[in-house]
């Protein structure tokens, strides 16, 4: 299939998801308006979410995270590499309630690996053809020379637990530039990622963990201003010292190297006690003026 400049796989198509200092302590949490908070709570409690998906709210804190990033129902939001759509099932109905627009910027179906194609197909099966629930889901391709949304149109670009993948592939700089180009002046880039801080780990993404200062440097290099950090998704129990990287922890629960045979005698209980990973939650903003200034 030949890709056009924009690959809008809307709900009727088939396809599928030197740095500055970090503020001390947790940033004050932004609160959604009462009406928007009620809408989001309704989405989170919706029957379209399974019990297993809801159980992860305790570690992923979707309501607080989206409020911190300032996501509102009338916005245009891009989610980079939505994967299986855990956040899509929250963000898309939330935006539908206010007339907003959801773009899922995924990898290209052309030349995709078997694993990637399976992921794309699963996303398609789950989210396409359900406009009453998910609204107008539009899919674009990240990293293929096109735009993940019309240039300067997005209010918010979000990415959850993906930067390590891009580090290992050497595409982080290019992807962050695409995020910058898609956003309106004053728009927000929100990043949640497994946090390597406090551990001695390689900086190539191979452990699944990433250092906060590396993400800040990437964003600043792309032109963003670093605005705030939050401890919403922190987990002090996570030592980051795991035999199979972050994937040793829930929800992956790996007990062998990738593609290896899982070990039935592996002591998973210790990692269940930790829970999901310690994560950074970072908010960046695209400057309004060419000199990097923001409006007061």
Structure description:
InterPro entries: S-AdoMet-dep_MeTrfase_Alr7345 (IPR016980), SAM-dependent_MTases_sf (IPR029063). This is Gll0496 protein. It comes from hydrothermal vent metagenome. The chain is α/β, with parallel strands linked by helices and 296 residues long. The chain folds into two domains: 34-235 and 278-285, 3-Layer(aba) Sandwich (Rossmann fold), CATH 3.40.50.150; 241-276, no CATH class. The protein is built from eleven helices and seven strands. It has helices spanning 34-44, 51-55, 57-60, 62-68, 88-96, 114-127, 131-134, 163-169, 172-182, 212-222, 269-274; strands at residues 76-80, 101-106, 137-141, 154-160, 183-194, 225-230, 279-285. Helix 9 crosses helix 10 (212-222). The longest helix has 14 residues, at 114-127. It is globular and about 55 Å long.
Strand and helix layout:
Layout (H helix, E strand, L loop, with lengths): L33 H11 L6 H5 L1 H4 L1 H7 L7 E5 L7 H9 L4 E6 L7 H14 L3 H4 L2 E5 L12 E7 L2 H7 L2 H11 E12 L17 H11 L2 E6 L38 H6 L4 E7 L11
Helix pairs in contact: 1-5, 9-10
Order of helices and strands: HHHHEHEHHEEHHEHEHE
CATH topology label of the largest domain: Rossmann fold
- For the residues shown, what is the average pLDDT? 88
Major sheet strand order: 3-2-1-4-5-7-6
Taking Cα atoms only, what radius of gyration do you get, to the nearest Å?
19 Å
Secondary structure class reads alpha/beta
For the biggest sheet, the summary is: 7 strands, mixed
Number of domains: 2
Kindly provide the name of the CATH class of the largest domain. Alpha Beta
CA(first)-CA(last) distance: 46 Å
Beta strands, count:
7
User: What fraction, in percent, of the residue positions are helical?
Assistant: 25-40%
Q: So, CATH architecture of the largest domain?
A: 3-Layer(aba) Sandwich
State the fourth-level CATH superfamily of the largest domain. Vaccinia Virus protein VP39
In percent, how much strand structure appears in the residues? 15-25%
Number of helices: 11
* Low-confidence spans: 1-28
Envelope shape? globular
